[in-house]
Write the structure tokens for this entry.
Amino acid sequence: MTTLDLDGLIDDPATRIIVCCGSGGVGKTTTAAAIGLRAAERGRHVCVLTIDPARRLAQAMGLTELDNTPRPVVDIKASPGSLDAMMLDMKRTFDEVVESHSDPERAQAILNNPFYQALSSSFAGTQEYMAMEKLGQLRAQSDSEGTWDLIVVDTPPSRSALDFLDAPERLGTFLDGRFIRILLAPARGAGRGIGRIIGAGFGLFAGVLNKVLGAQLLSDLAAFVGAVDTMFGGFRERAEATYALLKDRGTAFIVVAAPERDALREASYFVERLEQDGMPFAGLILNRVQEVRAPELSAEQCLAAAERLEVAGDSPITVSLLRLHADRLRNAERQRRLATRFTAAHPGVPVTEVIALAEDVHDLDGLREIGGLLAGN
Amino acid sequence: MPTSDWPHVMLHVVSGKGGTGKTTVAAALALALASGGRRVMLMEVEGRQGLAQLFDAPPLPYEERKLAVAPGGGEVWGLAVDPEEALLEYLELFYNLRRAGGALRRMGAVDFVTTISPGLRDVLLTGKAVELVRRKDKMHAKPYDAIVLDAPPTGRITRFLNVNTEIAGVAKVGPIRSQADGVMAVLRSPKTAVHLTTLLEEMPVQETADGVRELSDAALPVGGIVVNVTRPPRLDADQLALARSGDLPVDEIRRAVLAAGVGRDTDSVVAALAGEAADHAARVALEDTERLRIAELGRPVYELPFLASGIDLGALYELGSRLKAQGMA
Ligand SMILES: Nc1ncnc2c1ncn2[C@@H]1O[C@H](COP(=O)(O)OP(=O)(O)OP(=O)(O)O)[C@@H](O)[C@H]1O
Ligand SMILES: Nc1ncnc2c1ncn2[C@@H]1O[C@H](COP(=O)(O)OP(=O)(O)OP(=O)(O)O)[C@@H](O)[C@H]1O
Ligand SMILES: [Mg+2]
Ligand SMILES: [Mg+2]
């Protein structure tokens, strides 16, 4: 098993983007923040894009301004490096795209449209798509202004890490969809509006939609589609450009997993997908691994000793401590078996283990500690 | 056996932060509700075939299928709702339009309605759940005694359940409006309870608190809170306190470790055991803080242990019987 050389990765100026992926709750946000902090303290000019960090962690990083732009993280020993961080505001990012692509009047019409509101706040995949969009923006800003030389990206909580790669395309497919184009056709044809669909032989179809959705809904939809028509190309091109950026050699994907069956299964899918798509994959972080402080004491040995002491009525606290140790050993063994199964299936994949700390990671010291563990110290 | 805390509830909605055990708890609850000869429908709506995976069955079609038998002759049925099929069913039900389905599908309209318009998708899914609640056979008997819904996560649950009020905002009149009002009436009634699963960790508990607030604000009936994957402390309260403050009786432990003959280097064994105890105590303290925050929400709380062997049918029976013993079913 090779280990992931994190310091080698973050010290290499050619590394410009690090993406932390993985299934829900495994530690993506923590890992992204810890890598960002470590890279900054090793001299990089870093921007970390986080998504829904835990409240206390957000506070510790000074992420209290919700203005959807990166802010400096204070209290770090980064000089000559620097660390900026931001929390993604999905709806605002979407609104900004709309605003930058249309004149104010048209933009307002879109922002007010009920369909747009549903799309921008709750469509499954919008968060992934907007994370990509924001990454594209940050990268463009760092290229033009030289603000950052490394961007570390967290990804949204989803069961499947693949969502991050697939959502933009799904949205793109929709925006390209035939149905949309049918609705668009009349909108383009000199104001004949929705009636044209019916005239053009779509009577049954429009009739059904009218019945099911109600005429109001249908005209809202047509208005939305008409209004964003000019932007579709923009959306798609941007998504494609960002996707290309992810394939770039300056990008490194880091997959985070917990040593549990489901998380490792998801990690497997993701690793295979990255390899299949030729995405630059740096390695796996196995996070929250059970630490065992005296591995030479076997579980059986401890349980037998605890039994002897208990029978003799000797030192109840030692009995408890020995049983606790046996518990942790068993848990660690179970995790080891799961991890071994993963490495057997993916022999070339660099893996780094990070132990489960007793406390949550909610301040800069905690992030530093995780950063050190990530680097293998 | 205590009696159930939810005797009037027909629709049990199970939500919670992603990965905290919604599907597992929904299945265990369905088994618990079915035990003693009842018939329970377990419904999933996220299109992930989570139930088939859990019950080790082939992928479920959009069709009600028997999944498992419960203790005492009950039955758990399963249904994986496919939004496309639900749309076609809806069209047939309300407009006698099933034949139009093919044309709609070719147009990409079905895809559109069900994928891109989350509101409409959710209208169909909640509509299906309520249809199951209301369904009566020819003898006016209810085919299912209860419906358990493996629902979307906390972040989306209020919007999901409330979608019919949003529709009412856009569709002022017509059949869709009356359907929407009818669905909302059931979801807001005492026949429904929205349970939330959580772990004893900061973020899931925070999401639970936010979820309870949002559901209450939307006048949706909040049910119980299921604290999943708990691990019993290995030390008693006094021992935990000593471990936390660093006051473990090291001399006694050294003597006992020597007496029991474990390890070669007694000092390092003692240091390791004390260190592990301190870690453990810190974790337990953290969990106690979270338990307190959960208790403050003022909802019935149920706890399920971590099952190290993983979740198979046997594990679901065990979790189900624990829920029953605590009064959730
Ligand atoms: N190595 C670790 N030791 C102890 N606690 C950890 C560790 N890594 C992460 N945590 C804690 O686990 C929780 C979840 O971590 P985090 O928020 O980073 O996960 P995530 O993958 O971003 O979750 P989501 O999918 O919800 O976004 C946090 O409370 C964090 O402090
Ligand atoms: N009490 C338990 N003991 C051991 N493992 C458990 C327990 N409850 C759940 N799990 C495991 O935790 C993982 C997540 O559980 P589950 O799939 O039920 O969560 P979920 O909330 O439905 O997730 P998702 O948000 O992805 O739908 C699964 O691997 C499951 O087997
Ligand atoms: Mg996160
Ligand atoms: Mg699930």
